[in-house]
Amino acid sequence: MAEAAEPGPGRLWIRDPRAILAEGAGGGIVVAGTRIVECVAAGAKPAAPVDETFDASRHVVIPGLINTHHHAFQTLTRAHPLAINKPLFPWLKALYTVWGRITPEAFRLATQVAFTELLLSGCTTAGDHHYLFPKGLEDSMDVQVAEARALGIRAAITRGSMSLSDREGGLPPESLTQDDDTILSDCERVLNLFHDPAPGAMVQVALAPCSPFAVTRRLMRESAALAARHGSRLHTHLGETLDEDAYCQQMFGCRPVEYLEEVGWLNDRVWLAHGIHFTDAEVARLGKAGVGVCHCPTSNMTLASGRCRTCELEAAGSPVGLGVDGSASNDSSNLMEGVRHALMINRLTYGAEAVTHLDALRWATEGSAACLGRTDIGRIEPGREADLALFTLDELRFSGAHDPLAALVLCGATRADRVMVAGRWRVIDGQPLGVDTGMLREAHSRLAVDLFGAV
C-alpha cells in the first residue's frame, strides 16, 4: 500500500496573493498538514493563529495542475528523425524499432526527467501510461513509484500493456509485447503493492491496456474485472485517429466505442486518452456512462490527429481533463504550456467567446481530478489537499498584462516559481528540491544518444 504524505510544518498562511483561482480567498489560504484549512477573505486575517507566513504578493496562485496522460519513456526520443512529420500509425511503427533498446537505467532517467518537467510546470499530480515492457523492464511500475516518491509529486501510475504483436494483427513487434497471463499477474502485483484508494493518496494505480486493438478481448475484460475488485480505474487510448476507426472496424467489425461497451468498459471508472473521432451518438453514450476524456491538445496538433470534442463531451456528462501525452508526440512534459494550447485549439474550434482561460485551467485541475475519480485535489478550498502552483509575472512576456490569471494562459507561462504538494514545498525559486537538473539533463541526453542515435 502507498505511504501517506508527510505532513507540512504547522499552520502556514500563504498571504495576500496577487491573484488566486479560488472563491473568497483574496487574502490567501491557510495550510495545515497536507490540507487547505481556510480561505482568507481580502483584507482579513486567519481565524486562528498561524505558525508561519509566506508573502505571496508577487504570485498568482492556482490549484496544482493534474496530468492525466503521458508516456515518460518517450523523453528519450524527442524530435527523433525517424518520426518527425508523420501521423500516428507511421510514427508508432517508426519508433517501435528504437524503443525496444531502452534499458532499466534509461527508463529511470526518462521517468525522472518527465516528472521533474511536470513539477516545474506547476503540475502536482503526474499521470503516466506506461505500456512498453521489453526484456529488462518488467519492474517499470516500481521504478515510477520510486521516482515519484523521491521527487515528492503525487502520482497516477497506469500499468499499461500490449499483447497483440504485428504477427497477430497488432502494430508492435513481438519483442515489445507480453502474454495476457503475465500482464494480469503483474497488474495484480502492482495494485497490491502500490494502489491507495484513500483520500490524500500519493500513489494510485489504474490498469491501462495501450489500446483496444493492441490487446485481446480477454485482457480488456479481465482488466476491467481486476480493477473493479481493487477499486481502481481503467485507462486506454481511444478515438485518436481515423486510421484507428478503420482498424477497429477491420479487426472487430464495429467502431471503437461499440467495442468498449462490448468488453465492459463503458462506465464512470474509465477515462480515455484523446477522444477525437466520436460521432454525436457516441458522445452521448460516453457522457451518459460518465466516461472521462483526457484532451491532449499539443500531441493532437503535432500528429495532426484532429480536435477533441471537449465542449460536446462536457455537455453530455463526460469529465474532460488535460494531458501532455508522450514526449515524442509533444516533445515536452509541460502541462502549463498544454493549458495554453488547449485554449487556442478550442477557441479555433468553438469561437473566441465559447472557451475562456478559466475553462482551460479548469480542465487541467477539476476536470483532470474527475477523470482520476478524485474529489480531494483539483480545487483551492478547505478540506482539499494543499496542492498548489505559484507563478510570478516578472518576465518581459507578462509586461503590460492586466488580468493576472488570464495572463498566465494568454501570455504563455511555462514555469512555476513555487510548487506545493500535500502541504510541502517541492519547488522553490523555480528549482525542484533535491534534483540537480544539470546533471540529470547531461545523463539523460547521453543515454538518449547512445541508445537511440538521436541527433
Largest sheet: 8 strands, parallel
- CATH class of the largest domain equals Alpha Beta
CATH topology of the largest domain: TIM Barrel
Strand content: 15-25%
Q: What strand order characterises the main sheet?
A: 7-8-9-10-11-12-13-14
Count of folded domains: 2
Enumerate the spans where pLDDT stays under 50 for 5 or more consecutive residues. Answer: none
Number of helices: 14
CATH homologous superfamily caption of the largest domain: Metal-dependent hydrolases
Q: Average pLDDT, to the nearest integer?
A: 94
Q: How far do the termini sit from each other?
A: 42 Å
Rg, nearest Å = 21 Å
Q: What would you call the shape? A: globular
Number of strands: 18
Structural class of the helix and strand makeup? alpha/beta
What percent of residues adopt helix (DSSP H or I)? 25-40%
**CATH architectural type of the largest domain:** Alpha-Beta Barrel
